[in-house]
From TrEMBL:
Protein name, entry field: Calcineurin-like phosphoesterase domain-containing protein
Gene3D superfamilies in UniProt: 3.60.21.10
InterPro entries per UniProt: Metallo-depent_PP-like
Length: 262
């Protein structure tokens, strides 16, 4: 196990990891591959939710997660899932962050959305926050949006027919489902605006792994949807690895086995 600490780098490339659904079916257990991982050389660590069966139930679970992921680090970004929400006040005491937030890193704006509110829709204060970030994104070449539920599967004629074969939670109105939401009316048009203004947009969801452990789709507007997650009990655990070239301001995405970080 290893805590990740922020480090000053002089290289022209930085690395990010997106890791999600690391829970098992046992209340106080984390995927054994994750326990062995060392993320100390990763510059931004993106956690896609459902990290433990009941992540915020008590301090013992959060202590485990904090030891591995350094939850209060500004560059540890957690988009919470339905298995993370038992005690949000306790969770925030560890993360020292709001449940939706933004983080700027060397020409990239990261946005963390909370898809556990309002039937997966982004509304109210969270929508105002999102629009504020969109309105003031003046120096970023890239924008990466992190979220748990795969909200872009709903109401998409290309993706909706295959949604239930991709997402852990099916389309519907249950706690773990992808509920009908406002992604394509309130969020996507703003992303298209920024894309046309020269900001490359990538969204990464975390509620995946039980059926497939990776997914990628590019829209007609050249906005990328990724998803990455683990399956409890599998010996083929992987994460989404992102290499950022600062000079070129480009991102390179690949899926890597988790044991390469041991």
């Amino acid at each position: 196990m290893s805590c990740r600490k922020d480090q000053v780098k002089i290289e022209k490339e930085f690395s990010f990891v997106h890791l999600s659904h690391s829970r098992t079916d046992n209340l106080n257990e984390l995927n054994s591959e994750v326990l062995l991982a060392d993320f100390s050389n990763i510059d931004v660590l993106c956690l896609g939710g459902d990290l433990m069966f009941n992540s915020s139930a008590d301090s013992s679970n959060l202590n485990i997660l904090d030891e591995i992921f350094d939850l209060s680090s500004p560059s540890t970004l957690w988009s919470i899932g339905n298995h993370d929400v038992s005690d949000l006040n306790l969770l925030q005491a560890y993360t020292q962050k709001n449940l939706y937030s933004a983080y700027y890193f060397n020409g990239i704006t990261f946005i963390v959305l909370n898809t556990q509110l309002e039937g997966n829709s982004i509304t109210g204060d969270q929508l105002a926050f999102f629009n504020g970030v969109m309105d003031t994104m003046t120096v970023s070449a890239q924008c990466i949006i992190l979220h748990h539920k795969l909200i872009w599967l709903d109401n998409n004629p290309d993706l909706e027919p295959i949604a239930n074969s991709i997402s852990n939670g099916p389309l519907g109105n249950c706690d773990y489902c992808i509920a009908p939401n406002n992604f394509y009316t309130a969020i996507y048009p703003r992303l298209v605006e920024r894309q046309k203004a020269g900001v490359n947009i990538t969204l990464i969801g975390g509620d995946i792994g039980a059926k497939v452990n990776e997914f990628h789709h590019e829209t007609n507007e050249h906005i990328s949807f990724y998803a990455s997650g683990m399956k409890a009990g599998s010996d083929q655990q992987q994460v989404l690895y992102i290499l950022y070239n600062v000079a070129a301001q480009t991102l390179q995405f690949s899926y890597r086995m988790l044991n390469t970080f041991h």
